Each structure stands twice: as structure tokens, then as C-alpha cells.
């Protein structure tokens, strides 16, 4: 019987309310404390989820609490300071995406945890969504043969800034915020990338960063993958927060369409499946697909920590997704194709 692990959360904002609710679905994880710069947010979150103590100073939290791990759900500019602080206290860390504000910092975070002998996992949940797991199973079955082409699409006009106003202030926006998700899906489904070319632009005059990015990638397998992302797309069907897919292989193709509709085309048939997410009582309906899979992701983290093994998404693995994010920025800046091996620390 695995023992119950004690953890704390740093960052008690919008998403933490759901990420903690996902932890509450798992009996062997005990939330003992929360921390936020905003004491009111910390107090409200502690009361809501039954944490014994709340802090506004993370150093004090680490000094006073006996923790098996910490879940960092702050905005990205604070991710590194708390991952490195956790490492100094010998505490394993789970960090929200994007791992770091740049590739050098992401590498420093990975190295700090490696040197301290603690685990660093990354809460990157898009690849854990039920439809994406099913697509991976179909690809692994060989049903559509050798993949030669893929398209990953996250194009929306959803008013994301209403719940996440910080996103409108980011100089690096959609590649860091959504690219962290959809470029990771591309890696999860089609493997590692050799090179890419990226174009970006800002359509919305009321935000600081880019809200449109198009990335054309040549995979190490030789397959081509086009990854498109936008928060400026007013389309016939608003698909938020779904990622749509079209993947073509030597023996057929698969398409993931709106409302979790998966079609698998082979020479003899077109198989149709609807792969709906589990609807927990605490999810926000607008985000159900994303929030429901957090239970599965948290379970993988918890079991990995209990068993002393790596989870699916380690800091080292997610660093390779960060390479794609920051290689995309470099390509958009230079106007050139970027070899991924040239973008590293
Ligand atoms: P938010 O602004 O609502 O919450 C962030 C919280 O962190 C705030 O309450 C802020 O006070 C706190 N904070 C910031 N710096 C701090 C510090 N130095 N010490 C203590 N507290 C600090 O933001 P959010 O929308 O909840 O996003 C938080 C993180 O979650 C981001 O990394 C974001 O990318 C990620 N996110 C992930 C998903 C997903 O998993 N699909 C969805 C939304 C947001
Ligand atoms: O990841 C994010 O920042 C959220 C999303 C709903 C796309 O997961 O906006």
C-alpha cells in the first residue's frame, strides 16, 4: 500500500482552484499548506480545500512544512524561483507550463533538481486529454500505417483574457501559452523534431504579444507537421479548448474534430468514435476537456513519486517541448528555418 504524500501549492489563482480539486480526487495526496503573494487568495484557497495553513512567503512555507512535493501554479515569471527553492530544500516539484520564460532558465531548473536529487515533473495536461490518448493508441496500433503528415490546430476566439488577464500582458504570448500545449501534442503523437519554420503576428490591438503562430516542422522521422494556433480566429465552430487533428499515414488517416469526434479512415472502412472527457462536478464547463484530464496527470505524478520512478512528463522531457517553443520564437525573429539541435542550453 503506497503511503499518503504531503504537498503544498504555491500560486492560488484561477487555475489552482481546479488543479487542487483534481488532487482532491486522489486519496493518497494530502494538501497541508498553500501560498500566494495575495493573502486573501491563500486564505480562501486553504479554507476551500481544507489546508491547515496558508503563507504569503514561500521560504517560510519550506522552512516550516514537512513536504513530499510542491505543486507550483504561479504565473510563469515565478516558476524558476520556486522550483530552485524546492530543490534547495530537497523537495520534489511539479511545475505548471510553460516551464520557464526562456530556454536557459528551463535548463537551470532541470539541472537544479538533478543536482539536488529531487524529481521535477511538469504539469502539461493537453497530451492527457481523453481524445489525445485515444489518438496515440490508434497510432501505436499501426492502423493508419507509417505517418507522413500531421496537422495540429488550436484556433479560437474564446475570450481567454477574461479568466486569465495576465495573458494580455505577456510579450511572448501564444507560442509560450498554447505552443507549450500543442507543440507537446505534436511530439507526443509524431516524435521529435529536426527543424522548423515559424511565422507569428498580433491581430488583437489590445494585447502585447503575438496571438497567432503557424509552425511548419520536419520531424526526425521525415514526416511533416503543421501546428497552428490563434486566439484571433472567429470561425463557424468555436472549438475552445479542443485541439483538432488530421494525421495521415501510409494505410489511412485519422481526424479529431469538434465535440471529441474521432474518425479513423482505412481502405475498407471509416470508424467513428466520440471520446468525451469525464465530467467531474468541480470542472468549469468551458474548460471541462482540459480540467478533467488533470486527475489522470496528477495520478501519474503521485504514483511516480510514491514508487520512486519518473512520471511521463519530466522536466527533461518538457525541456524538449520548450526547445520547440523558443526555436519558434527564434525562427519568427530571424525569418529562417531553425534546426532544433542548435537551440539548446
Ligand atoms: P493567475 O494569475 O490567476 O494565478 C497566478 C497566482 O500566482 C496569482 O494568485 C499570483 O498572486 C500568484 N503568484 C505569482 N507570483 C507569485 C509569487 N512570487 N509568490 C506567490 N504567489 C505568486 O494565473 P493562472 O491563470 O492561474 O495561471 C497560473 C499558471 O497555470 C500559469 O503558468 C499558466 O500558464 C498555467 N495554466 C495552465 C493551464 C493548463 O494546465 N491547461 C490552464 C490555465 C493556466
Ligand atoms: O493553458 C492555458 O493557459 C489555458 C488553457 C485553457 C488553454 O489550458 O488557457
Quick synopsis:
Helices cover 34% and strands 25% of the residues.
* Strand residue percentage: 15-25%
- Biggest β-sheet: count, sense, barrel? 9 strands, mixed
DSSP, total strands: 15
Helix and strand pattern: EHEHEHEHEHEHEHEEEEEEEHHHE
Helix content: 25-40%
Figure out the total of helices: 10
Descriptive terms for the model:
single chain; 345 residues; 9-stranded mixed β-sheet; binds nicotinamide-adenine-dinucleotide; binds (2S)-2,3-dihydroxy-3-methylbutanoic acid
What would you note in describing this structure?
Helices cover 34% and strands 25% of the residues. The chain has 345 residues and is an alpha/beta fold. Strand 13 (261-265) and strand 14 form a beta hairpin. Helix 7 (174-190) crosses helix 10 (315-334). The chain is globular. Nicotinamide-adenine-dinucleotide binds at residues 10-16, 35-38, 41, 58, 73-76, 78, 96-97, 123, 125, 164, 166, 177, 290.
Write the layout of secondary structure elements.
Layout (H helix, E strand, L loop, with lengths): L4 E6 L5 H8 L5 E7 L3 H11 L3 E3 L2 H7 L4 E4 L6 H10 L3 E5 L6 H14 L3 E4 L6 H12 L5 E9 L18 H17 L2 E9 L10 E8 L4 E7 L13 E6 L2 E6 L3 E5 L4 E5 L13 H5 L1 H14 L7 H20 L3 E2 L6
Parallel strand pairs: 1-2, 1-4, 2-3, 4-5, 5-6, 7-10
Antiparallel strand pairs: 7-11, 8-9, 8-15, 9-10, 11-12, 12-13, 13-14
(2S)-2,3-dihydroxy-3-methylbutanoic acid (89V) binds next to loops.
Amino acid at each position: 500500500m503506497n503511503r499518503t504524500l504531503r504537498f503544498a501549492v504555491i500560486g492560488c489563482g484561477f487555475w489552482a482552484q481546479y488543479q487542487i480539486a483534481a488532487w482532491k480526487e486522489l486519496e493518497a495526496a494530502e494538501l497541508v499548506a498553500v501560498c500566494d503573494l495575495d493573502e486573501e487568495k491563500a486564505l480562501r484557497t486553504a479554507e476551500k480545500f481544507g489546508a491547515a495553513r496558508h503563507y504569503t512567503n514561500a521560504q517560510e512555507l519550506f522552512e516550516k512544512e514537512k513536504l513530499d512535493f510542491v505543486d507550483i501554479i504561479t504565473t510563469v515569471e515565478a516558476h524558476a524561483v520556486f522550483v530552485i527553492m524546492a530543490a534547495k530544500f530537497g523537495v520534489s516539484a511539479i511545475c505548471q507550463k510553460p516551464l520557464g520564460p526562456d530556454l536557459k532558465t528551463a535548463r537551470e531548473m532541470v539541472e537544479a533538481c538533478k543536482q539536488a536529487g529531487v524529481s521535477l515533473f511538469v504539469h502539461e495536461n493537453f497530451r492527457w486529454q481523453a481524445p489525445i490518448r485515444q489518438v496515440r493508441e490508434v497510432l501505436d496500433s499501426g492502423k493508419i500505417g507509417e505517418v507522413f503528415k500531421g496537422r495540429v490546430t488550436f484556433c479560437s476566439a474564446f475570450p481567454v483574457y477574461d479568466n486569465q488577464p495576465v495573458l494580455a500582458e505577456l510579450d511572448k504570448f501564444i507560442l509560450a501559452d498554447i505552443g507549450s500545449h500543442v507543440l507537446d501534442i505534436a511530439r507526443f503523437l509524431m516524435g521529435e523534431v529536426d527543424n522548423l519554420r515559424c511565422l507569428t503576428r498580433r491581430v488583437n490591438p489590445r494585447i502585447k504579444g503575438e496571438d497567432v503562430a503557424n509552425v511548419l516542422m520536419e520531424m526526425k522521422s521525415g514526416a511533416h507537421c503543421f501546428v497552428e494556433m490563434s486566439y484571433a480566429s472567429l470561425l463557424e465552430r468555436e472549438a475552445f479548448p479542443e485541439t483538432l487533428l488530421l494525421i495521415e499515414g501510409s494505410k489511412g488517416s485519422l481526424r479529431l474534430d469538434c465535440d471529441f469526434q474521432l474518425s479513423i479512415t482505412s481502405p475498407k472502412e471509416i470508424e467513428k468514435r466520440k471520446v468525451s472527457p469525464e465530467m467531474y462536478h468541480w470542472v468549469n464547463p468551458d474548460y471541462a476537456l482540459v480540467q478533467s484530464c488533470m486527475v489522470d496527470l496528477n495520478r501519474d505524478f503521485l504514483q511516480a513519486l510514491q514508487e520512486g520512478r519518473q512520471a511521463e512528463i519530466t522536466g527533461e522531457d518538457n525541456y524538449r517541448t520548450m526547445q520547440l517553443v523558443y526555436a519558434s520564437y527564434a525562427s519568427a525573429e530571424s525569418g529562417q528555418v531553425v534546426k532544433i539541435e542548435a537551440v539548446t542550453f
